Amino acid sequence: MIPGIDVSHWQSEIDWAKVKAAGVKFAFIKVSEFPLNKITMYVDDKFEYNRKGAEANGIYWGAYHFFRTHIDPIIQAEAFCKQVGSVTSLPLVLDLEVAGCKGSKLVRKVKSFVETVTSVSGRKPIIYTSGGFWRPYMTYEKLTDVDWAVEYPLWMARYTSQWPGNIYPWSGWDFWQYSDKGRIPGIKTYVDLNWFAGSLKDLQTRFLPQKGTSKEIFEEVDEEMDQPIHLASELKNTIETEPIRNNELEGMHILNEEKVPAPLQNVKTETIHTASDKPSFLSFLHGKFNKKNKEPADPERSQEWIEDVVYRDKKQN
Question: Structure pTM?
Fold first, then answer.
């Protein structure tokens, strides 16, 4: 599997050279959204900076749009594609995690969006969602309403140390966002961590444009294990938000568009410096799923404590 991240302006200034050195192979970068009750598209002010930083350091990048239902999906898709311009790396992404409607009405909007992105960009977009959103909102009326979605790659959000289950109609996931508490060199805040289900060659073959392959920005086909990501221990979350939730399942906040979170401008983050002797991210994965009943220890005395809490496991009662 190949490690990656996803970022937005919340990560502030990113040192992409350090991110690459930490072992990151791909990054999804926020581009846009139409804020609730607004008809003007918000463009993330770090998009161009992050895209250029990823490209300059040989990190594959993908651009995502935070989907809203109060704006016509075709308008959203066209504005998103226009903002990104030429898609020279990973496909565009539909970020689907909030809704002001559900069932067949929502399905029609989402289907219209991805079809428009496909038409404009010439490539099928990736769908980002969680089972906790998809099941009660997209399959609210009929399971078969979403059969068409199997044609699009799935980027699943599921914060757990266990292997995530499937979401209908997909038989598996292509990308898995497994934590929102990652710490890596080059990024001062928490960052979302992801896996790609395959080798680097698989990623290149399936998700990169087939034209112009002689100009590949990243050619380490068999070296995905050479530069592991390094993570620090889980620290107290310093990002304080006040979302009003309908539900919260599988690690993703399900927001009702009738109720708006506290203004994002009020979110505060605290810079936390990581230790230089951080555990290997990939070596951590090899042992993670076989560990049971490990008692946490003082992080100053034990690297094992770091390995146990880095995923922010959800304890079962």
Answer: 0.70
Whether residue 202 lies in the annotated active site: no
Which residue in the list 44, 97, 250, 307 is annotated as catalytic?
97
Catalytic status, residue 304? no
Query: What's the rounded Cα separation, in Å, for the pair 48 and 83?
Result: 10
Query: Position 142: which residue type?
Result: K
- For 242, the token pair is 């006040």
Q: For residue 239, count other CB atoms closer than 10 A to its CB.
A: 12
- What span, in angstroms and rounded, lies between the C-alpha atoms of 65 and 77? 8
How many Å apart are CA 128 and CA 114, to the nearest integer?
A: 12
What pLDDT, in 10s, does the model give residues 166-177? 999 999 999 999
Statement: 1-317 belongs to CATH 3.20.20.80: yes
CA distances from 166 to 4, 77, 170, 245, 314 (A): 21, 27, 7, 24, 19
- Label residues 211-238 b or e (16+ Cβ within 10 Å = b): eeeeeeebeeeeebeebbbbbbbbeeee
- The per-residue pLDDT of the chain, averaged, comes to 77
Per residue in 245-292, pLDDT tens?
333 334 443 334 434 333 333 333 333 333 334 444 444 444 444 444
> How much is the CA Rg of the chain, to the nearest whole Å?
19
The partner residues of 29 in beta bridges, in order of sequence, read 7, 63
**Measured distance CA(201)–CA(290) in Å, rounded:** 28
**8 Å CB contact between 41 and 83:** yes
Q: Are 83 and 55 in contact (CB under 8 A)?
A: no
Task: Reduce the secondary structure of 7-52 to three states and give it as a string.
Answer: ECHHHCCCCHHHHHHCCCCEEEEEEEECCCCCCCCEECCCHHHHHH
Domain ranges of the chain: 1-317
Q: Which of 6, 44, 192, 234 is catalytic?
A: 6
91 residue type, one letter:
P
The b-or-e profile of 83-93 (16+ CB within 10 A means b, else e) is bbeebbbbbbb
